Amino acid sequence: MHFNFVIACIGIIFAVPFAATAQSIGSAAQGTPFTISVRPQYPSPGSKATISLVSTSLDLANAIMTVLVAGKEIYRGAVQPVAIPLGKTGSVANTKVTISSGGVNYSQTVFIQPQDVVLIAEPVSSTPPLYPGKSLVPIGGDVRVVAAANLRDAQGKTIDPATLSYVWMVNDAQIADASGIGKQAIMVASPLQYRARSVAVAVTSQDGILVGGASLSFTAQEPTVRLYRNDPLLGIRYNRALSGEYAISDVEAAIYAAPFSLPTTSGVPLVQWFLNGAPAQTGNSITLRPTGKGQGNATLSLVASANSSASATANLSLLFGKEPSFNLFGL
Q1: pTM of the full structure
Q2: Where are the domains of the chain?
Q3: Pairing with 225, which of 37, 46, 98, 250 sits 20 to 30 Å away (CA)?
Q4: Tell me: the pLDDT tens digits for 175-202?
Q5: What is the rounded distance in angstroms from the CA atom of residue 23 to the CA atom of residue 278?
C-alpha cells in the first residue's frame, strides 16, 4: 500500500501586538532632631502612604508621637509607622508630626502628593491575527514599556504628558539615552530565562514640583505553537486546537500553525513543517492531500523559530483513508 502527500502552502502575517504611582514632597525644619521617611516613594491616589521616624538624638522608644493630617489628628501614641490616607491625583496630604520627648515638643511637616503613573508592558512577540489576548514576554526578544503619566497640580490641572521629563531605570541602572522630556517609552531586552528584569520610571514636571513614578518586573516565558484546522468555508477553527491524532476524512486537509510569544523584533517567526521526519515546506499553513487507496498514517511535525534561543515545536499523528461515520441525520 503506497501513499504520497501533495503539500500546498498558505502564507500568513502576524500582528505584533504588563504599577504603583506618584510623589511625596517632604519639608523638614532646620534643627529638627528626627527625620521622616515616606513609603512607597511614589504612592498612588486613593491609597495609603506610611511614614516612619528615625532619630539619633531623641529616645523615640519613650516618646509620644502625634500625627495630624489637614489639621485633623489621626494618631497619638508610641512612635511607630503610621499610615496616611491619600486622596485623588494631585491632592496634598499636609501631614504634621509632633514628638514629645523629655517634656519638649518637636514638630515637622511633610506634604504627600500622590500622582498617577502606570507602566504598560508590550512584548514584541507573536500572536495569531485577531487574537484577543496578549502575547507573553519572549525569550531572546524585546519588550516595549510605556509610561502612562497623569500628573496634576493641587488644583487638579493636568500636565501634558509630552512636556514631562522621564527618567528610566533598568535593573537599577539609569538609561540616559532613553530618558528625557517626552520620552514616554523604552525598549527593553527580555531577561535570560528563569530570571527577572525590573523597569522603573520617575516622571517630573518641568518646574520639578510634581513627581510621580512606577515600576514593574517581568520574566521571559517559553513560546508555544498550536495547530488548528483551516476549514475552507469557516476559516481557521481557533475554538479547538489539534493534538494527538487527526483523521483526514476529506480529499485534503489544511492545517494552520499559530506560534505564541516568539520574538518578532527581527520579523515574523519561521515555521518549518516535517512529514515523517523529512522537511516538507515552510509557512504557517500546510495542505495535505493523501493519494492512493486504503488506510494509513503519517507523522506531521513542525518547528517555529525566531532566533537561535527561541523555538517551539508541535506534533500530530495523521490518520487517512478511513471512511467518515454518519448518524441518521447525515451529520
Answers
A1: 0.80
A2: 5-14+223-320, 23-113, 116-219
A3: 250
A4: 999 999 999 999 999 999 899 999 999 9
A5: 61
pLDDT at 13 over 60: no
For residues 258 and 128, the answer to whether their CB atoms sit within 8 Å is yes
DSSP state of 45: T
Residue type, 211: V
Q: Is the pLDDT of residue 6 over 60?
A: no
Query: Could you tell me the CATH superfamily of domain 5-14+223-320?
Result: Immunoglobulins (2.60.40.10)
64-69 and 72-78 beta bridge pairing: antiparallel
Mean pLDDT within 301-320: 91
200 closest CA partner among 190, 220, 186, 210: 186
Residue range 155-167, pLDDT digits in tens? 999 999 999 999 9
DSSP string, 168-213: EEETTEE-GGG-EET--EEEEEPPPTT-EEEEEEEEE-TTS--EEE
